[in-house]
Each structure stands twice: as C-alpha cells, then as structure tokens.
Amino acid sequence: MVVQSKKKETIELRRRGFSYSEIKKSLFVPKSTLSSWLKKVKLSPSQLRRLKRKRSEAAKAGSRIKKFKTLQVIERIQKTSVTNIKKISRRELWLMGIMLYWKERLSHGNRSDLKKGVRFTSSDPDLIRLFLKWLRDIGHLEKEEIVFDIFVSKRKKNKDKIITYWSGITGYSKNNFSRIYFQKTALKKSKRQSKSRAEFGFLRIRVKASSMLARQISGWVNGIQKYFWV
Fold this sequence. Notes:
Largest sheet: 4 strands, mixed
Structural class: alpha+beta
Mean pLDDT: 84
Number of domains: 2
Strand order of the largest sheet: 1-4-2-3
Helix content: 55-70%
Number of helices: 9
Number of strands: 4
Strand content: 5-15%
Low-confidence stretches: none
C-alpha cells in the first residue's frame, strides 16, 4: 500500500509538471523507478517549456559553480606559487634579462640590428620595469644613459596622460618622454595586454652608445645556446 500511495503521489506531481529531480528530492524515489512509473504520463506544452527553462537555469547555475571552483583552485595555486619565488640573486637577474632580450630583440636572427645598440620594446609595464632594473643592476647604467620612445596608434590619444603613465611606470621624469610616434596602422595586441596597448601604446627603451653592450648580450645568448646544444 505504501508503494502504491507513493506511486500515486509521484504521478500526481508529474502531472502537475514537476521534473524527475524535483520529485526525487521530494519523495526520495530512485530515478529508475520514476522512469518506470511515469513513462506514460504526458505533459502539456507549458509544462514542457517550464522544465526546459529549469534545465537551462540549472545548467547555467552548474556552470557558474564550476567556474567559481576553478577560479578558487587557480587562486590557491597562484598564491602557493608566489611563495616559491624567494630572493632573486644577481646571477638569476642577469639570466632573466638575457632571456628577455633574446626573445624581444634577437630571436628574429637579424644580427645587424646589434649596430643600433640596446633597444627593448614592450607594452607590459612589468617587463619594462624588469629590463630597466636589469640595465641598472647588471649593465651599471645611469639614468641619463637611457632614453625612451613611445609608440601609439591614434593621434587622438591624450599625450599628457600617456606620458604620465609611462613616467609612473619607469620612475623617470616626464621630460624624458618627449618622443612620441603615432603609428598609421593599428598595433598588434594580445588579449592580456589589449587594454594597456590600446590606451598607452608601446614604450621603447634605448641605451645611448650601447652597440658593445648589445654585442655582449648576443655573446651571452650564444653561450646559452651552446650549453643546450653542444
């Protein structure tokens, strides 16, 4: 009698438009049993629309929960990874700068570029700061030995705002950013850096009379290459 009573109640809930999940939570009936009891119960178009809407809402809610949990995992990994970086030694900084310059200036293989001296271009403020620190701590360069060029894609940009931005990033006076070049074509940008590139463009760091330093960096790169491929 208990089973028949529960079956009758199950059918009644289904006829009222409840989903299998809702009935299962309410009456604690296994899904396989629900399938057997309810296979002949037909729902109205409005009831079907309601169930479809609820499935869609449930799927969205599940997606949000999954995304939230994924972000929590990523945040936890990032916090743990940060602690792996201890004090960076002078040698580590030296190697970091070489690799950075290798990727940005030397990877295209045009060694004649070395005659133009040390130049480094980026829209990433952290990479700009890193390379400036490298020039100071490893290259032993003074501030007056370094000059800057700014590249932006549209003339309508606020020059003072751009100069203020790069002055803040580098720690150099605004007077060091008088050279601004406006590009006729849009600058290529990645998703991560699109906002800063669109608003503030690229900054090129140039070292005065630095062709010998550029050749020295090239030699260090050759040493790294030989280490791995000999």
